[in-house]
Amino acid sequence: MKKNSYDQLMAEMQKLMADAEEQKEETRLLRHRLKQSESVASKYERRLKAMQTLSLSMFSMLDSEHIYSLACESVVYQLLWDCAFIIRVLDKDQVRVTAFQATRAQISHIEKQVLSNAAFMDAYVHHDTVTTYQTGDLAALDLRVLFHTDNLIATPIIFAEHLFGYLVVCSHTKQSESVHSEHDMNFLATLAAQIGQAIQNSQTFQVLEEQNAKLRQLDDLKNSFISITSHQLRTPLSIIKWILSVLHSDAALSKLKEQSHLVDQAYESNERLIRVVNNLLNVSRIQEGKLPYNPQMIDIKAVMLDLCKGVEKLCKQHDIKLEYDLSREKKIVRSADPILFKEALQNLLDNAIAYNRPGGSVRVGLKQTGDDITITVHNTGPGLTEDDQKKIFNQFYRSPEALKIQPNGTGLGLFLARAIIREHGGDITCHSLVNKETTFTVRL
Asked: CB within 8 A of 252, min separation 6: which ones?
């Protein structure tokens, strides 16, 4: 009886020991699997961090060659494949290889193999076929011999349905030891997509740079044309002005009673043409940064009075009432370029008269408050919309109403006026009510 109890106890102990060994083995296997999982997780985490760094670097580059080279280098050093290269599809009959850890002879051989393989060209280049494939599909390229491996992956580089080429990575690990899992395939597909987007960005930037270069060239040609044309026109216009000024004198007009109005018209037309030429020349100088600025102490009040006196006759011809209030001060002295300053204010007065209505008025104001000088030019013309007021100082801009009243204007007067006043350290602003009035205010 005692023996049976002893045997039973021993059997139970042996069973418990066997169970313990089994649990111990299961624990060992679980630890091994956990270690493997941790290793795989660490590998994937390392890859994700490497891809994040690589993506930031690629998207900051504007040269496609550098993007391809960096991608191949990072695949080897950061993603830990043995070698990497990119078969770039340049056009329907041309490819180029960018590689890392490969000799120039190997690269040249790959390019020749690709171009000479009609099946590959027809399947993957000529028709922009998008596909992912492993070793067997690339056997014709003899990559196994080149890189001494049967273990490689090729992934298309695509962005916006455009095929840029193929990213190929390979390992010297035996096929049976390969870890090219579905995760690896997805990872490389993501990397290839980011390469494609980075390349697209760089190409877009290059196109914009080329377009900007052409625009700058056209702008330079335009400025050169304006400058040359203006200089060529000034001399004959000056001669015409001298002849007309002689004919415009009282003595000459007394002899040309019936023709005097024609002389007046010719003289005024010539004056307008001279102002247009001067405006064009000054625009060219402003854009080239060569506007001649020669400041001296001038009497602003005297300049304004002279300008107002000069347009009295023109106002009468257009049935416009001219009013001016030029401060009670005897003089308002300020450092300014007398020629440019007068030209800027002349443009404001000319516009106030030209874009007015018969029976309307022009009011010119001048006042000094401390060191500040304010000049206002007000008219009762068609006015400007809020949108027009935002654009009115832009070069060549003319509002729809201005085009109706003066179809042949240049759209340069206000642009030049503001540029000149800003050169003097001031500014011009505009306030307008449609169909009522417009006021330009100069502050110095």
From this structure: 246, 263
How confident is the model over 137-173, as pLDDT tens digits? 444 354 555 556 666 677 778 777 777 777 877 775 5
pLDDT tens, residue by residue, 310-329: 888 888 888 888 888 887 77
DSSP category for residue 394: S
Q: What are phi and psi of 379, to 5 degrees?
A: -140, 170
DSSP codes of every residue in 334-365: EEE-HHHHHHHHHHHHHHHHHTS-TT-EEEEE
Nearest CA to 350 among 270, 267, 272, 434?
272
Enter the pTM of the model. 0.47
- If asked whether residues 347 and 283 sit together in one domain, one would say no
pLDDT of residue 76: 78
Number of domains in the chain: 3
Q: Are residues 309 and 276 in the same domain?
A: no
Containing domain of residue 405, as a range? 293-443
Shared domain check, 301 and 271: no
Residue 220 CB-half CA count within 13 A: 6
Q: Which residue has the tokens 């003289």?
A: 267
Nearest to 375 by CA among 302, 428, 438: 428
